[in-house]
Every structure is written in C-alpha cells, then in structure tokens.
Write a structure and sequence with these properties.
Helix 1 links the parallel strand 1 and strand 2 (about 35-40). With about 290 residues, this protein is of the alpha+beta class. The chain has two domains: about 5-115, 3-Layer(aba) Sandwich (Rossmann fold), CATH 3.40.50.10330; about 130-285, Sandwich (Tumour Suppressor Smad4). The chain has helices at about 20-30, 45-55, 70-75, 95-100, 105-115, 140-145, 150-170, 225-235, and strands at about 5-10, 35-40, 60-65, 85-90, 115-125, 130, 135, 175-180, 185-195, 200, 205, 215-220, 245-250, 255-260, 265, 270-275, 275-290. The protein has a 15-stranded mixed β-sheet that branches. It has a two-stranded antiparallel ribbon with strand order 10-11.
Length: about 290
C-alpha cells in the first residue's frame, strides 16, 4: 500500500455547499495520520494558481473539493506529477465520485481518503484538454452555457432541472458525424455523450463506459424528435433495458467528432470546446484514491 506522508486540500468555495463544507472537511481530516495543507478558494479564477502552488510543494496526495467541473478543470495540472488525487464531492451531480464508488458525504469521502487504495485510471481528452468523466453535445451544453450564474448554488438540482425544462422547449435535433474518410458515419441525433465513465449529470447514462478501459466511448441517442431524448433519460433513470434502444456507440482510443450545425461541447458541466474535435483517451494517466 502506498504510504502517504503529506496532503494538500483545495476546495472550490464557489461550488454548491463549498463555503459551508470547507470547515467540516478540515475537521474531518484532522483524523488523517498526516498533515493537510488546506485552502478554500472563493474566486474560481484563483483555483489553478492555488493548485499549482500546492503541487510545487510535492504532496503525496492532492484532495480536490467541489463538483465535477472543478475536478475536470484542475485534473490537467496533475498529469505528469507523482501525486494521488483525492476526491471530496461537493457538487450537485458528483458523477466522477459515483463512478469511483466514493460516498457523496464528507465523512464517507474522507474515510475513503484514509483507508482507500490508489487506483490508476484513464482520463478523457477533447483535443488537448483532459477531462475526468463525460463531455456532451446537445441540450446539456445549451443549459450550461445559459444557466444563471447563481441558480445551481442557491436552488441546487431543482433549480437546474427547471432551467433544463425551459431550454428543452427551445432545443432541436442535429446531425452527428463520427470518424474520418471511409469510416465516417452520419446520423440524426438528439444527444451525444463522450464518456470516460458511466455517469453524466448524476445519472448512469453510458453503462458501457469504464474509467480504466483504455477506450473513449461516444454514445449517440439517435432520432429526429425530442421525445426520444426524454424516453432515453427516463429509461436510464430507472435503469430499464429500453435505454439501449435507438442508441449507437463508438469506441476507440481516438475518434473524430463533428456536428451540423457546429455546436458547443460541455465538459463535466462547463462549456469548453466546439465541434469539430478529436475525442481521445489518456490511458492510466493518473492515480486516484478509491474504495478498497
């Protein structure tokens, strides 16, 4: 078992629950058998600088507290460093924590940090940008691009879902193109998920994707009408077999993805790219503390 002698904690205090939970997290980590250099970051623009400063001190463990967007936005900085990632899920969906089997409460997550074991996992990539969990095209980035800044923070999942319903009324299906040259395939779709793990938005949508498979999965919900997306979401929510109907999946180490019209791509909830892109896998590129 890897011996950990030092750790750094960086909490996105602008994420939902972030400011309220920072002190509780620090208190819970007093039980860890090594010192934790803790930082609460209220301005998201300061997160990268804070993580770089923490990594410069060469901790054995870097604990990131926040939502999926926080982890994906900072995980790039860990690649190439001999440091283990610890996850303190403080977001709304916490899809990455669900994928790894990490409890979504502070005591449970800290217990995994204390007693877990480092697990080597893949990261997805959109062009040169690493991400932890899932990227999407369709309604999800439309919501992420337009959601009022404080809606998720103050109203949580209910507020976010209300905004999703509003944007769904304005949404239209689009054309997806996967592959290049003679392998290229074109289809009409209502949503596309580029997945390194099964969960997206807190729901298991791509159950064939694994965080250590060495492959990226591009899943397309096919159709010309929006109700197919609702049907797929509902079937996924109750884990019914019909969630696999009208769905196509493509797997590989690298896949070119384009759309008509050109669309934004949300990466773990944050709009960070636009089609066309190359979706890739970075196999076994980091270690994360996971349940035994």
């Amino acid at each position: 078992m890897t011996e950990i002698k030092s750790a750094a904690l960086v909490v996105n205090a602008m994420s939902r629950k972030g400011q309220k939970m920072f002190e509780r997290a620090c208190a819970a980590m007093e039980a860890l058998p090594y010192p934790v250099d803790a930082h609460a970051v209220e301005n998201p623009d300061d997160l990268e600088r804070t993580v770089r400063a923490a990594l410069a001190k060469k901790p054995d463990l870097l604990i990131l507290g926040g939502g999926d967007g926080t982890v994906s936005g900072l995980v790039d900085l860990m690649v190439g460093h001999d440091v283990i990632l610890g996850v303190l899920p403080l977001g709304t969906a916490n899809s990455f924590a669900r994928t790894l089997g990490i409890p979504r409460d502070i005591p449970g997550a800290v217990e995994v940090i204390r007693t877990g074991t480092p697990r080597r996992i893949d990261l997805g990539m959109i062009d040169g940008d690493y991400f932890a969990n899932c990227a999407a095209m369709g309604l999800s980035p439309k919501i992420a691009e337009t959601v009022p800044h404080h809606l998720k923070k103050y109203l949580g999942r209910a507020g976010y879902l209300g905004w999703a319903v509003y944007q769904f009324a304005r949404f239209r299906p689009f054309t997806l193109i996967v592959g290049e040259d003679e392998t290229r395939e074109r289809m009409r779709v209502v949503e596309v998920r580029i997945s390194n793990g099964p969960y997206h938005g807190g729901m298991e949508l791509v159950d064939s994707a694994e965080v250590d498979s060495g492959e990226i999965v591009v899943q397309a919900v096919c159709g010309h009408v929006k109700r197919r997306l609702i049907r797929n979401w509902f079937a996924s929510a109750i884990r019914h077999e019909t969630r696999h109907e009208e769905v196509r999946e493509f797997r590989g180490k690298a896949l070119r993805v384009d759309t008509i019209p050109r669309l934004p791509i949300s990466i773990d909830g944050e709009v960070l790219a636009h089609t066309p892109v190359m979706a890739k896998i970075a196999a076994g590129v980091i270690r994360v503390m996971a349940p035994v």
